[in-house]
Structure formats: C-alpha cells, structure tokens
Please model this.
Amino acid sequence: MTRSCRQSGFTLLEVLVAVAVLAIGFVGVLQVVAQCESRSRDNRDRAEALRLAESKLNELSVQTDLQPGSDEGDFGAENSRFSWKQRIENTETDGLLKLTMTVNWRSGSREQGVDLSACVAPGVLNTGSSATSEAASTTSDAESAASGAAAGATPGMGLPGGGAGGAGGRTGSPSSSSSLR
Model:
C-alpha cells in the first residue's frame, strides 16, 4: 500500500500573485486619496479667494467717490498667495457703476481666479437683500467652460436667494454676479 503525502497550503506562485493584486489595489487607493486631497485644497483656495474678493468688493462698494478705472494689489503677508484686481465701469444706467473684483492665485502649475461683480449706485444706501446672483462658473486655464456647467452653473441664468455675490448692506447693489475660474 502506497500512501501519498500531500501537503496543504499555498505555493510561492500563488502568494506572489496575491501580493501583486494587493499592491495594485493599494496604489489605486492611494491615487484616489491624493486626488481627493488635491480637490479639497482647491476648494479651500476657492472659498478663501471668494471670501477675499467679497471683502474687497464690500470695501469698494461703500465708497462714495468711485470713478471708472482699475487698480490691483495683494493681500499682504497673511494671504500672500492671493492677488487682486479691481475694475470700475460705467453702465448704461446713469449713476450706476459696475464693480468687478478679481482674486488670482497659483495652484501648482495652474493660475486660478475668482471674479465677483456688483452694480452699485454710489451714495445710495441699499440695506435690503434684493441682490441676486446672475452667474457662477468654474474654470481654470486647463479646464473648459463645460466644467462650469458641470458645477451647476448656467451663465446668464438668475439664481434666486442672493448667492455668493448677493449681500445685504451693500450700497446700491441691485445685482451682483460671481464666477470662479
């Protein structure tokens, strides 16, 4: 009588295949985590840029001696990655000015920015919150305008509720708009 002795367990080849499958899965998970962190950082930067733009636009909108023109600067050492540009333009309506505040920053190799606009009548106090956001879109140098639509924005469509650009207490602000790029 012959007895065959068979050992149970895994062969070296089976172990190597299992380790390779686990390594590939682990690399995929790490890539997803890195992408999530990058997008989270981009969203924090956009939120900070929008806050800075709104603050600067509010400072500008309470001035009573506004004249058409442009200016630019930075936010000092506290927000040294961000810079701003303002543009004041006449509108078709007498006494109404369009203020546009742009905040730019660099994220990796991409230049990004936030544009925030409001129409004001200098010297006329509007304490109501009747402002409405006209448009919001998200783009960057490497992205197309389609990404703005994917973010839920439709340029030219009014969004009720004030949006990021609407603010009570802003002087003479019948309308405002914001856009992220």
User: Anything to note?
Assistant: Residues 19 and 76 are 51 Å apart (CA to CA).
